[in-house]
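Re: that backbone. Tokens:
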């Protein structure tokens, strides 16, 4: 039943971003009919309303220091501010979009003559900008192209970037669709990467992207109601496929990388509150293939901690420093993370390494037996998980599916024209 539910959620999300009629009735569509001709002031007012609400949601103001204190016992150490780390996807997409809107208003103010749904071109010394906006009630569609060039060594690199944004208010919540299309060209080569984000406030989040003239594609999906997360990345050159899944019922997310022969070449486990904040990563292709991360607040036995900076944090037991060979990243009220890298070939993971008893401490939230058991979840189930989200072990097929999910694209004729302008003005 759970598999059927997850598949239904995905079908709904894909319907949203590909514009099925029923979902368009709810969320609107970027190709809405432009029935009215709004003035620039009307459009700027709508943009300002969106920007204000987005910045309120993002709430990324600088936080005042919690304390000037640097030495703490366990009872004195401020708890982590969970509100500061939750909903990062929402905060980032709203903040980035608000900054895009700020730039767009600046460009629109520079147009000598503005007409809704018609391109205005601004010519500068270092770049040209072509932009148009259309509006109908709360629906807003913006299409923007920016070109520039720069020297990379002795070679001139030309770039044309397209930013396309669709916004709508649905029951006083913001619905966002964004495409960013970046084209690079030189005498020797050319590349194109396209990314897409879709977010409905209080709803689901989708992020995906492709290198259209390359070989990579990624898909990231959050089902908001149950906080389920699925992420996959595919590389057609070497046929590597990355898979990551978070199921709240298991209190951990797990990830693996499969090569073309379906060997697991990387794996990871991230446990979640309330169980633990412990993480395990394995990558046999690097010098220290095993990385463990603990939360200091889950470790027992230490008496004081000195928080100075990222390189000089210290942990003590009755005045004796411990964990000297560990990386310690402590930020008061934000995170208290201890990391240890080692070579599994020389020193296999044991219970005493995991529970820190060899350091005179105790971490008992996760046992070695549970870790080894949980590590096998994705290795045993990756095929069914991929199928639930309509993907497969065929990297090219996954690339094609992700590419087809992007609902709108830049105008190729405008991109080519802006490239020609760059070359002519060199």
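Recovered sequence:
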């Amino acid at each position: 039943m759970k598999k059927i539910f997850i598949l239904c959620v995905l079908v709904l999300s894909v319907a949203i971003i590909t514009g099925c009629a029923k979902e368009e009735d709810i969320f609107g569509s970027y190709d809405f009919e432009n029935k009215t001709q709004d003035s620039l002031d009307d459009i700027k007012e709508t943009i300002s309303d969106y920007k204000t609400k987005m910045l309120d949601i993002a709430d990324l103001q600088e936080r005042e220091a919690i304390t000037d204190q640097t030495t703490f016992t366990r009872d004195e150490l401020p708890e982590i501010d969970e509100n500061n780390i939750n909903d990062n996807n929402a905060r980032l997409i709203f903040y980035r979009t608000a900054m895009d809107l700020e730039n767009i208003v600046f460009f629109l103010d520079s147009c000598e003559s503005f007409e809704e749904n018609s391109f205005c071109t601004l010519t500068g010394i270092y770049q040209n900008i072509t932009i148009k906006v259309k509006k109908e009630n709360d629906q807003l569609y913006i299409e923007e192209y920016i070109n520039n060039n720069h020297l990379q060594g002795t070679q001139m690199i030309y770039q044309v970037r397209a930013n396309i944004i669709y916004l709508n208010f649905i029951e006083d919540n913001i619905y966002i669709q964004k495409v960013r299309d970046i084209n690079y060209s030189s005498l020797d080569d050319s590349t194109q990467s396209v990314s897409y984000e879709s977010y409905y406030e209080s709803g689901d989040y989708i992020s995906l992207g492709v290198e259209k003239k390359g070989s990579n594609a990624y898909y990231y999906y959050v089902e908001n109601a149950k906080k389920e997360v699925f992420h996959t990345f595919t590389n057609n050159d070497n046929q590597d496929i990355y898979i990551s899944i978070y199921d709240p019922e298991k209190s951990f997310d797990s990830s693996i990388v499969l090569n073309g022969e379906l060997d697991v070449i990387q794996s990871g486990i991230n446990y979640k509150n309330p169980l633990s904040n412990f993480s395990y990563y394995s990558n046999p292709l690097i010098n220290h293939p095993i990385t463990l991360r603990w939360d200091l607040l889950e470790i027992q036995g230490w008496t004081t901690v000195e928080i100075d900076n990222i390189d000089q944090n210290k942990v003590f037991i009755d005045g004796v420093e411990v964990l000297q060979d560990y990386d310690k990243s402590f930020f008061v009220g934000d995170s208290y993370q201890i990391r240890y890298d080692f070579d599994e070939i020389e020193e296999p993971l044991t219970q005493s390494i995991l529970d820190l008893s060899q350091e005179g401490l105790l971490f008992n939230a996760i046992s070695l037996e549970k870790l080894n058991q949980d590590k096998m979840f994705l290795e045993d189930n990756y095929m069914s998980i991929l199928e639930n989200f309509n993907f497969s072990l065929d990297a090219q097929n996954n690339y094609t599916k992700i590419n087809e999910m992007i609902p709108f694209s830049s105008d190729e004729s405008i991109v080519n024209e802006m490239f020609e302008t760059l070359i002519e003005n060199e």
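Residues 2-67+85-225+396-424 form one domain. Residues 50 and 98 are 8 Å apart (CA to CA).
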